[in-house]
Write a structure and sequence with these properties.
The protein has 13 helices and 3 strands, in the order αααβααββαααααααα.
């Protein structure tokens, strides 16, 4: 196994155990919580409370700090429909229910506002915004939709978007002759092969996402490159764990290899065709069930 493959697989196992891998950063760039803050958020209680019902599905801590946890929980509740459009969000009530400071609540609501999920106006307060205002290309919203009631629609929309983006990216990449990226693509295939053999679904998924991100970068189109995060998010939520060297996995791996071969040969049409064949494999993967927390 190459050094890169070993490092990536070790990092994936560390992340799965809840430990930060080499170079990992919190997803949200906030400082540490003030002294006296709880290490984890309390659920919003109350038998008749919409917040109480939704919070039972809330995610556990992912090492993001209190800000990130609150963003995650409120975001899931909004996207799932538990907090409907135009629902007022009272910062004082949020702070009391989750036992967090005003600063945590304020910064969390700012993140949700940037995603288009809520709006804050003077004399009106903070309210949930309708779906038409959401940033549906935000990776967090993609994840929340993919594991909520809208998961079927999200999966279909992502598949349609990828079908538009990635074959074009493969065609363009074949015309650029980026040997450095081609080498890294080959490394990702090696990692996926090792991971598949060991039943390591986490490493396989990460290497797969990196492969597709690199390919879009190789296209040399900055607007396409801007969409690479969407593709990565789509891959993270579209399939289940790898259980071994089963036939679908081998077929998928073969399509990845043919893409790299077409890139090396400068075969734009071949790269595009191989990508379309690969996407058919991905589209046939099962819709994930909602995660239990």
């Amino acid at each position: 196994m190459s050094t890169l493959a070993h490092t990536m697989m070790t990092a994936a196992r560390s992340a799965d155990s809840g430990l930060a891998g080499p170079g990992e950063l919190d997803r949200y760039p906030y400082g540490e919580a003030p002294a006296g803050e709880r290490a984890a958020l309390r659920s919003w209680g109350g038998a008749d409370s919409e917040f109480g019902r939704a919070s039972r599905r809330g995610t556990a801590s992912r090492g993001r700090g209190l800000h990130g946890q609150l963003v995650q929980q409120l975001g899931q509740m909004i996207v799932s429909g538990d907090l409907g459009a135009d629902r007022p969000l009272v910062p004082e009530e949020i702070g009391q229910r989750f036992e967090v400071s005003r600063t945590v609540v304020r910064e969390s609501l700012r993140v949700l506002e940037a995603k288009g999920l809520v709006s804050a106006r003077p004399n009106v307060g903070t309210r949930v915004r309708p779906v038409s205002d959401w940033n549906l290309l935000d990776p967090d919203i993609i994840e929340w939709r993919a594991f909520g009631p809208q998961r079927d629609d999200q999966r279909r929309e992502l598949a349609e978007l990828r079908w538009t983006i990635e074959p074009l990216a493969a065609r363009l990449a074949a015309g650029h002759g980026r040997e450095d990226i081609q080498q890294r693509l080959g490394d990702m295939i090696e990692i996926m092969g090792h991971a598949m053999g060991q039943g390591d679904g986490i490493t396989f998924s990460r290497a797969d996402a990196e492969f597709h991100s690199l390919l879009i970068q190789a296209a040399g189109n900055r607007m396409l490159e801007h969409l690479s995060g969407i593709v990565s998010a789509a891959l993270q939520v579209s399939g289940g764990p790898v259980t071994g060297c089963d036939r679908p996995g081998e077929v998928s791996l073969g399509h990845h290899a043919r893409i790299v071969e077409a890139l090396a040969a400068g075969d734009s049409a071949g790269a595009e065709t191989a990508m379309r064949q690969l996407l058919v494999v991905h589209v046939e993967r099962a819709v994930p069930a909602p995660r239990e927390h």
